[in-house]
Hints:
- This protein is mainly alpha-helical.
- The chain has one domain: Orthogonal Bundle (Farnesyl Diphosphate Synthase), CATH 1.10.600.
- Helix content is 70%, strand content 1%.
- Strand 1 (94-95) and strand 2 (98-99) form a beta hairpin.
- Helix 3 (47-57) crosses helix 9, helix 7 (132-146) runs antiparallel to helix 9 and helix 10 (199-226) packs antiparallel against helix 14.
Amino acid sequence: MKLPAFFEEDRHGVEQALERLLPAETIPPPSIHCAMRYSVFAGGKRVRPILCMEAARIFDPRVEAAIVAGCALEFIHTYSLIHDDLPALDNDDLRRGKPTCHKQFGEAAAILAGDALLTLAFQTLAEAPLAPERRVAVIQEISRAAGTVRGMVGGQVADLEAEGKTIEPEMLEYIHRSKTAALICASVVAGAICGGAGELNVERLRRFGESIGWAFQVVDDILDVEESSAALGKTAGKDQAQKKATYPALYGLEKSHEFAEKLISDAIAELSPYGERAARLRELAEFLVARRA
């Protein structure tokens, strides 16, 4: 499935904002800024910032604040990839079709680049052009999603501890909803908050985000089995090699496909009250389950 038509326009806006927010390579110390920029601009679809923008657009066509929040989300996502690729974790040499940060700059620089991107993310959020109460709400949402209690770091820990073990379906759900779905959901919720949505609409968008975030990780599991390293831009077959807990490993490919499609169907149903205003979010949801990389 091709990227939605609006995707490139949104991505261009995100790229411009990332360029503006990241320190230039000439600013001392240049080595850390080179490593940060290398990882952020190594590629990627910018799914999280675009979800943030399009969730905001349902409620307000002005998406400047959502772009800023989306860039912070991209910084957090990139830091997580840098650290995930390190020898102590997934020990990967390839990310987005290029050498991983630690392969290009060394392990010490990669660790510090990840730390710096996480710090920059919260500086960016603290300076976002939002009313104070909405700025705080966005920071709370994203910090929870990136943390240890049903957040990205907690999910990563559970994922590591589950390697080589037979786990219950409930634990697999916890891992997927924490390590991947939480930050994707936060992207949608942060966008709704940036757009001025009220509490009921924020919660409806939260349900949408939870479903697409979960589906995103299920599809990632499937692609690790079905696609090549060249297609994925990262090492294929790593999940099986590392005996990770995945949906294909527990349920098989056919049921995993069916489950991802059901999650996307559930997500799209949450958008029904918004009609055409949510057309772009619907397209994004359909793309996320049909993608091949």
